[in-house]
Design a protein that fits this description.
- A hairpin with a 2-residue loop joins strand 5 (72-78) and strand 6.
- This protein has helices spanning 20-30, 60-68, 87-95, 106-116, 130-140, 145-159, 175-190, 194-206, 209-221; strands at 9-13, 34-36, 40-41, 56-57, 72-78, 81-86, 99-103, 120-126, 168-171.
- It has two domains: 9-33 and 98-225, 3-Layer(aba) Sandwich (Rossmann fold); 38-97, Guanylate Kinase phosphate binding domain (2-Layer Sandwich), CATH 3.30.63.10.
- It has nine helices and nine strands.
- Helix content is 48%, strand content 18%.
- With 226 residues, it is an alpha/beta fold.
- The strands form two sheets. Strands 2-7-1-8-9 form a five-stranded parallel sheet, sandwiched between helices. A four-stranded mixed sheet has the order 4-3-6-5.
- It binds guanosine-5'-monophosphate.
- Residues 16, 39, 43, 74, 76, 78, 83-85, 103-105, 108 line the site of guanosine-5'-monophosphate (5GP).
C-alpha cells in the first residue's frame, strides 16, 4: 500500500433508511486505521448509547456555548435536535493517524466539504424507492408511523435532490453491491493503486448523474407512498 498523503475525511449521507449506517460499519469492519467521528447532539441517548461513544450528549446550552467557542466544523438541526462535528474529536483521530468516517445530515455534509475542500469526500446513498424506504423504516422498528411518514416526506422534499452536490452516489438496492461500492470508493481514496482508482471511476459512470436522475424521478413518482 502506498504512503498516505493526508488523512481522508469520508462523509456518508442520505435519507434515514438509505442504509448509511450499514455501509459505514462495512468500512470500519473491513479496513484498518479508520475511525468514526463522535458528534455532539442535544438529543437524549437511545437504548444503551453511551456518552462519548455514540455521541457526546449535550444540553442545548452546552451545545450553543460550543458553537460560540467555534468548537464545531459544522452543525445542523435534525428533527428539533442539534448535531455537530466536534473539531476536537476529528483532530484527535487525525493526530492518531486515522482516516475519519462521518455520518452527517445532507446540509452537514455539504458544509463540511466547504470547510475541508478536496480533503473531504462526500458520498450520497440513494435508497431504491419510496416503497423500499418505507419497508426498511418499518422493519427497523424504532419509529411510530407518523415519524416514519415525516422522515419520508423530508427525504422527498429536502434530501433526495441534493445528491448532485456530492462527490459519489451509491444506489443502495442490493446491499452486497453497495458494500463493494463503498469499499472501492474508500480504497481508491486511500491507496495509490491505479486499478482500484480506475474501478472507482467506472463506478462513477455506473452511478452517473443520468442514472441517479432516473432513480430520483421514480422516487418522486411514489410520493403517494407516504
Ligand atoms: P440519530 O439521531 O438518528 O443518531 O441521527 C440523526 C441524523 O443526524 C442522522 O441523519 C445523522 O446523519 C445526523 N448526524 C449525526 N451526527 C451529526 C453531525 O455531527 N452533524 C450533522 N450535520 N449531522 C449529524
Amino acid at each position: 500500500m502506498s504512503k498516505k498523503r493526508n488523512n481522508l475525511l469520508l462523509v456518508v449521507s442520505g435519507p434515514s433508511g438509505s442504509g448509511k449506517n450499514t455501509l459505514i460499519s462495512c468500512i470500519l469492519d473491513n479496513r484498518d486505521n479508520v475511525s468514526h467521528s463522535v458528534s455532539a447532539t442535544t438529543r437524549a441517548p437511545r437504548g444503551d448509547e453511551k456518552n462519548g461513544v455514540a455521541y457526546y450528549f449535550m444540553t442545548f446550552d452546552e451545545f450553543e456555548r460550543t458553537v460560540e467557542e467555534g468548537g464545531f466544523y459544522e452543525h445542523d438541526v435534525y428533527r428539533e435536535n442539534r448535531y455537530g462535528t466536534l473539531k476536537a474529536d476529528v483532530i484527535k483521530r487525525v493526530a492518531a493517524g486515522d482516516n475519519v468516517v462521518l455520518d452527517l445530515t445532507v446540509p452537514g455534509a455539504v458544509n463540511l466539504k466547504k470547510e475541508f475542500g478536496e480533503r473531504a469526500k462526500t458520498v450520497f446513498i440513494i435508497p431504491p424507492s419510496m416503497k423500499i424506504l418505507k419497508e426498511r423504516l418499518i422493519a427497523r422498528g424504532t419509529d411510530p408511523m407518523d415519524v416514519i411518514e415525516r422522515r419520508m416526506r423530508f427525504a422527498l422534499e429536502s434530501e433526495i435532490d441534493r445528491y448532485r452536490e456530492f462527490d459519489y452516489v451509491i444506489y443502495n438496492d442490493v446491499l452486497e453491491d453497495a458494500k463493494k461500492a463503498i469499499l472501492l470508493i474508500y480504497d481508491s481514496l486511500t491507496t495509490g493503486d491505479k486499478n482500484v482508482k480506475k474501478a472507482a471511476e467506472k463506478l462513477k459512470t455506473v452511478n452517473s448523474a443520468e442514472f441517479a436522475e432516473k432513480i430520483v424521478d421514480r422516487f418522486k413518482k411514489e410520493a403517494d407512498m407516504i
